[in-house]
Each structure stands twice: as C-alpha cells, then as structure tokens.
Amino acid sequence: MGERVDIFEVGPRDGLQNEQREIPVAEKVALIDCLSKAGFNRIEVASFVSPKWVPQMAGSADVLAGIQRVGKVRYAALTPNMRGYEDALSAKADEIAVFASASEGFSKANLNATIAESIERFKPILEAARHIDLPVRGYVSCVTDCPYDGPTPPEKVAEIADTLFALGCYEVSLGDTIGQGTPDTIAHMLLAVRETVPVTRLAGHFHDTNGRAIDNIDAALALGVRTFDSAVGGLGGCPYAPGAAGNVATEAVVAHLERLGYETGLDLGIVEQAAQMALAMRAE
Ligand code: HMG
Ligand code: MG
C-alpha cells in the first residue's frame, strides 16, 4: 500500500464563497452529502463571517443543520472572531479554523485588521476551543505573493505559522491565495516554515490561477508535506484577492497522487460526481 496523503476538501466553503450567484442552501447540502460519501476525513462546509463581507456564506448555520453527517467526517467552519466561534458552536461544527495573512495588505482587505490585531482576535477563540477539545486549524494566506504587497518573505510566513501553531492550531494550512507561487518560491517558503512548525502539521493550500498548483504540490511533497487542500471542480477564488482563480481541483489532485503511488482513501468516482455537481452549480 502506498504512503498516505490526506486531502482536505474546501469546495463548499472556499469554492462557493466566491460564486456570483446566490446558491440555495439545498444545493450546498446536496453537494456536501455527496462529498461525505467519498471518504474525506474533513470537509470545510461553512464560514461564520460577516454576511456584509461575504454574503455567499450567510446560510452557513442552515447548511450545517441540513447535511446528513457521516460518522468519521469532521465538518469544518471558518471563524474570524468570537462571534463567529459562538455561531460555529451553536451550529455544531466539528472543527473550526482561524485565518491570518502573512502580508499586511491582504490582512487589511480580508479582515479589516493588521496581522497583529487578527492574532489578538484569535487568542480567545483558541483558548475557548481548548477547554472543549474542539480542533482548530490555522490558515496563513499569501504565503508566496500578495495582491497588494507583492512577494512575501518566507521568514514572515514562518513567523505567522509558528504563532498559530504555538497558540494551539493542530495544523497550519499554507495558502497560495492568488496562485502566483512557483515550485521554487513554494520550496523556499516551506524550507523556512519547516524550521518552526513540524512538517507533519503543515498543509498546502494552492490556488490554480496560473495552472501551477499541481507542480507546487509536487514541490511540497518533495519537502515532506502530506496534507493538501483542494476543491471539487476547481471551484473558488477569494473575494478579497483579486485574480484568485479556483482552488486546485480535488479530482485532479487525487488522480495525480494515485499516479504517483500515494494512497488517499478517496473514491475517485464519487469525487468526480461531486465535481460535476459543483460545475453545474457554477454554470447555472
Ligand atoms: P469589520 O467590519 O471590521 O467589523 O469586519 P465589525 O466588528 O465592525 O463588524 C461589521 C458587521 O459585521 C457588524 O454588523 C457585526 O455585527 C458583523 P453591523 O453592526 O454592521 O450590522 N459581524 C459578524 N456577523 C456575522 N458573523 C461574524 C461577525 N463579526 C462581525 N463572525 C470581520 C471584521 C472580521 C467581521 C470581517 O472583516 C469579515 O467577516 N471578514 C471575513 C472575510 C472572509 O471571509 N474572507 C474569505 C475567507 S479567507 C480565505 O478565503 C483565504 C483562505 O482560503 C486561505 C487562502 O486561500 O489563502 C482561508
Ligand atoms: Mg483559499
């Protein structure tokens, strides 16, 4: 049996948060119910952020209430502040995520806060989650390039990843938010981050804007990363990152990893079925 690589499905959140059309809760629920059968351990399905900032995620509590939960799957939600944390708990999210940026420009655009202010908002979330053993994931955005500030120094990414890990995030997902990374810049960034956070606690979150996400996954695999975020159908983008095309497509990542001999535990047929659903949602 090949070595295991874990895929974290983010389509219902990172994918759908960026669609222009208002997608009914029932359609989101149907997509997630399909994904639940594919074998994922974790699916990001919701985001408890301000609906004024991201109207597409306004129905997140209804989505979590409507899905058919499959035993082993953890259904995850983004929480930018304590208000989001409380809402995620009420909606019975199985895990949550805080999201910081490695660049000040994106932090301001995405959270209306400096990096330092955003970390201060996350501290009480991590403190509260620790008391109830709720797993918290951490994101770092713009790990190679920022749409506002240009190239991101690898040391800055290492600093923010280290901060989130030290505060209690069980895993830190490194986001090439605008898909400008290359195998070279991804490798430089990872070499710096690996110095501060164990590589087994890192995930790659690559957007495919320039068609390089799979090459970037290969660069990360070579440096020991074994967890990747992706979205069925290549859904996605980020409302506060102009030019951020879709996340790398889950079906492409699974097929690629299988060709390389890795084990994903996923049923590619069901993943492809979910991808068709996702693409139909986008087209409507
Ligand atoms: P703000 O305007 O600075 O803060 O927003 P505020 O406290 O003045 O709140 C504004 C309004 O939102 C108020 O309502 C609050 O009550 C309300 P009003 O009084 O005007 O009626 N509010 C909330 N409502 C619902 N849920 C909440 C919440 N908090 C406040 N949790 C804030 C600050 C953080 C709220 C805002 O900037 C925000 O929601 N940002 C989220 C942006 C976002 O979701 N971006 C996409 C996700 S990040 C991403 O995609 C990157 C990632 O994929 C990795 C990668 O690719 O790099 C993770
Ligand atoms: Mg993203």
Automatic annotation (TrEMBL):
Cross-referenced InterPro entries: Aldolase_TIM, HMGL, PYR_CT
Name of the protein in question: hydroxymethylglutaryl-CoA lyase
A Pfam family: HMGL-like
Keyword line: Lyase, Metal-binding
Cytoplasm is among the record's keywords: no
Gene3D superfamilies: Aldolase class I
EC top class, as a word: lyase
Pathway: Metabolic intermediate metabolism; (S)-3-hydroxy-3-methylglutaryl-CoA degradation; acetoacetate from (S)-3-hydroxy-3-methylglutaryl-CoA: step 1/1
GO terms, biological process: ketone body biosynthetic process; L-leucine catabolic process
PROSITE patterns xref list: PYR_CT (PS50991)
EC number: 4.1.3.4
Domain (Pyruvate carboxyltransferase) ranges: 5-272
Presence of keyword Iron-sulfur: no
GO molecular-function terms, A-Z: hydroxymethylglutaryl-CoA lyase activity; metal ion binding
Family to which this protein belongs: Belongs to the HMG-CoA lyase family.
